[in-house]
Records
---
Amino acid sequence: MHSLLTVIDALPAMLAGTLVTVSNVFISLAMGLLLGIPLALAQVYGSRPLRAMVGLYVWFFRGVPILVLLFLCYGLFISLGLPAESFAISCLVLGCTSTAYQSQIFRGAIESLPQGQLKAARALGMDDRTGICSIILPQALRLSIPGWANEYSILLKDSAICFVLGTQDIMARTSFAAARTHEHLALYAAAGAVYFVLTLAVLKLLGRLERKVQIPGYTAIGVEPEGMEARS
Amino acid sequence: MTSGIEIVLSVRNICKSFGAKRILTDCSMDVKRGEMKVLIGPSGAGKSTFLHSINCLVPPDSGDILLEGRPLDRSNKKALCAFRMQVGMIFQDFNLFDHLSARENVAIALRKVRGMGRDAAAHRADEELARVGLARQAALYPAQLSGGQKQRVAIARALAMDPKVILLDEPTSALDPELVGEVLSVIRDLAADGMTMIMATHQMDFARALASEILFMEKGRIIERGTPEALLADGSGTRTRDFCTRLLDMGAQAGHD
């Protein structure tokens, strides 16, 4: 009973923390989306030096732990005399990391499209920019939704680590309450439940989006049998 | 320009290598308005590469391409797009845009390349789909169409750009036998309407009936050319005749299975 009261007591603070977590993840995902698509295009269609540069970026952010990046970025801000604001640093580090991962989701989707799609666009007189915007990306982005949903769920949970810089997210508020009341079990169970609900709700939304933009005749496993020409 | 023998497309001395492998050697042809040129030859002869090099989807290493007497500057991207807009292309495997309905497949280039409004483009698309007998399938997506229907949408998509010439790269090779007829009949109608076409095909009866000229390719060269009558006559002793006889024999054998 006492632990339940502790959780109820901590709830307003945890909900405020939820807002911080959601903002952090939303900003980072948006940054990843905005930068990940051009990065993927550069890696598929770009010149050799450009591809190498993108490869280097992806290699770095996939290779270094987020915890290390957070302290690294913090140190960098301090040494440059910039205000070491924890929320901004969290968004920057998660955003850069997500950019790397998202670029690979989009690159995979673009490369999975048949070569003939861009060829047909060119044959109709489209320049590559038009072909990519009107033909390639609409198909590639549809294919990216499952991978993107996965990236969301990973990023949401990775964001918990940002409390080490003092970002006032769910994790920070929970650990503060736990240190004060020693009700670790109940409080962290509640925190886990909040993360769980946030994951589930957005995955549901993305699943709905995926069905909404589905191309008629296509299913998750490819093409519906009746839509396919009969092959003997 | 008003004479009946006006040359629409002129292709001169096209050469292409992939690495050390020579694919095309000095391929040339002049296509007059309303003509149907048919490329035949064994697979690997370079027919498909030749067609792709004409609109620079496979850029040739050397050679000249002239549309209505104007040479194409391949290094100028704008000029290349404008050229391709006037040269339709039909692919063996259709290459319809999978995320667009039949109508949108035809309309998209009208909007994005020719700058037409959405309604005008959709209207024009419906006209072209009706022309290939697909008025009722306009709202269907590629995955919902048969192979023959997909290829007819691809033809409508090319026609909508008002091309001066259409290149057809084995348009019926990926189709089941019972679907070949509907696509050939659309092409036959185009020929009857005076559309200028260059077509690679293995459909010999079709080539014999409709070709203005047959070009026989082997090892990247055009080694024989002439009217179907001249190349396919009994006792003409041409490589074309020899090749066709073997094709027909194979067809007869398959028929006995």
---
Amino acid sequence: MAIHRVKFTFKQELITLPIIYDLGKQFNVITNVRRADVTEDRGWVVLELEGDMEEIERGLDWVAAKGVRVDPVQGDVLEG
Amino acid sequence: MSFANALRCRECKREYPLDPIYVCDFCFGPLEVAYDYDAMREAVSRDSIERGPLSVWRYADLLPCDADLAVDIQAGYTPLLKADRLGTELGLRNLYIKNDCTNPTWSFKDRVVTVAATKAREFGFKTLACASTGNLANSVAAHAARAGLDSFVFIPSDLEQGKIVASSIYDVTLVSINGNYDEVNRLCSELAGKYPWAFVNVNMRPYYAEGSKTLAYEVAEQLGWRAPDHCVVPMASGSLYVKIWKGFQELAKLHLIDGVQTKMSGVQAQGCSPIVTAWEAGTNAIRPVRPSTIAKSLAIGNPADGYYALGVMAETCGACLAVSDAEVIQGMKLLARTEGIFAETAGGVTIAGLKRMAESGHIRPDEVTVVFITGAGLKTVEAVIDELEPPLTVEPTMASFEEALGERAIGERNDVAAQEARSA
């Protein structure tokens, strides 16, 4: 089992969709939200995903295909 | 000695030991170095600092590592120049330039890397690495060479030639990635989890970021131990901007300067301005963007410290704005023409922003204003090469020279006349 930490950033049109619920239902991945900020027009969620790495990657591809931005949990590294 | 006593989560405030970690295990918030300021206050004075070396290591007591182990190529203590000619053009009577072009690898990155490399050596790492838009790559490669460490740097493949050469020379393993900086960063985050390397801006990040505070320390010392009224800072991730503010706050906390009333203003390039967009929308939520600007060292689409930068901006009555690539070029030329400083594109961003803030009255004419120039122009020659007057090409005779000179003078007069006609 692997653990992967990610940040999802949602556009306004995606705010109302149960994407994290679907991620857990459609893929064999445990979702564990740690921090979030969601309003009516945008939102981000920092969460931990647990499962087989291949399954996590398939799940993240599905999330990204929905239009959600998927980033490493720490955001960008600092100015390079 | 260092007075760092913990890493603290910037969100939930949980504390961790001073290890090579960067994310809070509980809430996944970013970690920051915490210090024992009471003990530091007992040990540090203006005198003790002024007796120190002419580098960032004169402020060793305010940094998170042991100066005796410093990986030091003399970063910092760069000039603070009174910029009277630029100030006159912009209507600013107390303008200063903090010129970080004069660092050993020609950018402010030497400040952060000297701290990160020192800490990496303290932790026993054998390899120094980074994701970079160029300046950081140069500095990591140079510091690794100095420390006798192996080094890997990861860069986007569209980087300026000058920045590639200025890394390769140090015998670094340079990895050019077919993707933008955000994608390079993403890969490095994965690599940092797999390889036992000190990625200066991933797992060494809490320590690395502290090096930027030395810009504030130096500015305050060079102004005669006072904070300026106004700072204008280029923003990429927002970290530099936030750490300069933290530096002034710390000096006040240590009673080395009186209170801080500095307004903190920031500038981004229009092709990558997520912090400005959030500021103008009145929200603290940063929407990541895909960068497209000639100011590649500021091209960070998902700024890690954007949220914190917005907080400092609001707290200090600062502001921010975004400038076009054309303004960036004009900014570079204006700085060079008036003050003899050839800055990289990020400097053009900052000067263009300064100009607009002066014109709008956001910066008042009498304010003691410091503008931060963070990297040298030879690294980004491609950005301006087609915008400059070509050389006069002449035969080796007086007549040929004077003929060419006359033609140029006529050309310049015609340009002025055409400009006046357009204005009329």
---
Amino acid sequence: MSRFNKGKKEMPELNTSSLPDLIFSVLFFFMMVTSMREVTLLVKIDRPTGTQLEKLARKSCTSYIYIGRPATDQLRSQWGNQTRIQINDAFATDATEVYDFVMSDRNKLAEIDKPFYTVSVKADHETPMGYITDVKQQLRKGYALKMVYSANKPTN
Amino acid sequence: MPGLNTSSTADISFMLLIFFLVTTSMDTDQGLARTLPKPPEDEDQKNELKVKERNILNIRINKDNYLMIGDDYVGLDEVKPRAKEFIANPENRANLPELKPKKCGILGTRMVTLNHVISVQTDRGTSYGVYFQVQDQLVAAYNELRDELAKQEFGYKYEFLSKEQKEAIRDVYPQKISEAEPKQYGKNM
């Protein structure tokens, strides 16, 4: 009989030696699917919704231009409530800065990537078209002829 | 020699994970891709004027976001059917673009509206949202026509076709939306 009750067995401790591996795989997953945040948005952008959208093919060859009204009260008191064009981390004084931005940004790319250079325009849906056409004219002037009107998928 | 104590590796990798969660974003950028025309030179502008009137579909949006196709005021939901009719011109009507023979890859020679152009003109005060909706509807018109033709010829929707078949369909319905030169009507910004 003694073989059956050798005193109370202790609950063995949970083996956590594979926990780091688990976390690492989650980490790698996130490193794959996300991308570094490029800029802090200074403008409020509510993009238009569209049904016929395509995904952007090459993220590395893309520059972003943001158009909208200043996002925070602090920015509004400094810059007013007019629509602004944001390039990199600052407001552009006028649309001609887009030209310089496009020229310098394209030059950072490798020579084989230059034909794929695309400019993604992220604009608020209430923006007057005047700003958009100004930007488009500057893009044409800089021969950055591929552009994308950035938009949201409709949620339903 | 005792084994290396790895009990803190989990904490370290947690820190890394949290760092990446904070600094990265998962935005998938989507949108309507467009190719802009080259900057205007004198000769190019002359060529543009040569397009016949029946081959142009003029869509105008004014500063109060009212839409006009040709000479009619229309709503947003009318854009797609009007554009489809214009692009395909199935009954070969005289006020719609002329049909011309064109070699379309594996589909052989077909009558297509070779020279049609859709031009969207806006005022400086038009809101971008409306302009975008119109552009979206125009792309939808092209996509529906391509889907219809693909089903009729190959029995599948356009997106499931092979590269060759897609090319042939694109030859029949090439996307020709002009990014027209801006015009300044009213100076309301």
